[in-house]
Amino acid sequence: MDSELPDIYCPFPQRTNPHVAHTRGHLDSWTRWTGLVHRESARDRFEQADFGSFVGMVYPTADEENLDLVADWFVWLFLVDDQLDDGHLGRSPDRVRDVVERMRAVVDGSAPEPLPGENAPAAVTALADLWKRTTPNAAPHWRTRFAWHLVTYLTTATTWEAGNRAEEVVPSEDTYIAKRRHTGAIHVCMDLIEIVAGIDAPESIHNDPRFITALEAACNHVCWANDVYSFEKEQVLGEIHNLVHLVRHHRGLGEQQALDHVAERLARETERFLTAEDELLELYPELSGLLVPYLDGMRSWMRGNLDWSRRTPRYNPADVGQYEEPEEYLEETVLGVPSARAEAAAPAPCAAEAPPGG
Description:
By secondary structure, this protein is an all-alpha fold.
């Protein structure tokens, strides 16, 4: 890429969690136990991304147990997202419908937890473990909101995004921005702030327009910054769901102009967050005990996402350019859906024998 990545305004301090080393070891064990990562090529790529470092930057105050928990959520989200973004499944919504329904059933309790040894996709087995560890002590309204955000992520990624790719639809900027907060699963990650901080924000706060503004601005900042840092890689993959790409497409801008334009909008989102934050704290001084850590969690997400994005090889075009096709590093066992190449190579089923004649 001839263009330069722009500076992104984010006036929050850089922090990291002291339990990162432990969490890296935990992630290695958990991904092996769940079957999410086992092939050598997938393991190498997973270790290079350093998700333990990422989770330590965006949840710097989490205790060891909660850092392990949110790290597991991160890995699950990233590995499922890779399946839906990088590979053939991202253009085949019908092929993932069944596994998405199995994951939805785990969340809404309509299906039993997969048994050990059961031939379930790794993403389903891992999700059942995550749900069991996350929800026991959470308030009912938190579980309802979290479940809705999780299912909306899955359905938006597997229907709207995949449908756009299959039909070669280029979304408008406004439509993309509204959907991006779901396809990026950032609401899921923001919900986990309450678990990490040990707080229970009432529905009155979640419905307050100032809180909605602060949350929306923080989510936009994370998602759009990701689009800036992943832009070059996603151009290699032919991905259209990227704000920089859409700004170029719809406004007729050059690459550098589009990058700078998105950076300017990111700065405005930061200011929008800061204004809403001040208004919330002024309006609800009696709720500072839960608002301060919640808003601090949003700040950590904006800052930590930038710091990790600058250092991880995940968004470097070489991350995918070293493979002839994404299926070389994607694990079929994650969603339990074989690649088109594997299906084509499979032997045809034998014709059933005719019953004995009389």
